[in-house]
């Protein structure tokens, strides 16, 4: 692949549009993609509005892929809360890449293991409704 044939990275608007119309490639909606959605949904919205957008987007996209059972409410709410806390503490930065550079721990898919036991995150109730953290350091 030459430098001229490489596709430019997806803009935030392109990312959201592709997610909304369920044309986003699955590899673009890995853990980083989920954090990107939380970040973009939170910049100009309060928590309930951002949460509703994130829940709706993830559920619709998962359903379009035939993977509705993959949605996990506790992970969704907990990561959104962590992203929003960082936004509150340090501001959004110039763009998502700057936010990502400033908060690399958010991109560790195992971050919630500091707050939840594996049994709790693996439970059916945690998939269906938000469960408070239960891990003790």
């Amino acid at each position: 692949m030459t430098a001229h044939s490489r596709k430019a990275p997806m803009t935030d608007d392109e990312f959201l549009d592709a997610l909304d119309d369920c044309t986003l490639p699955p590899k673009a909606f890995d853990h980083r993609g989920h954090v990107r959605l939380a970040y973009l949904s939170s910049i100009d919205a309060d928590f309930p509005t951002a949460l509703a957008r994130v829940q709706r987007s993830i559920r619709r996209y998962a359903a379009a892929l035939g993977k509705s059972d993959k949605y996990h409410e506790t992970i969704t709410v907990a990561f959104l809360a962590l992203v929003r806390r960082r936004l509150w503490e340090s501001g959004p930065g110039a763009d998502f890449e700057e936010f990502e550079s400033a908060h690399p721990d958010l991109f560790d898919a195992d971050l919630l293991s500091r707050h939840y036991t594996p049994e709790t995150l693996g439970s059916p109730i945690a998939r269906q409704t938000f469960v408070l953290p239960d891990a003790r350091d």
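The mean pLDDT is 92. The first helix runs from residue 12 to 20.
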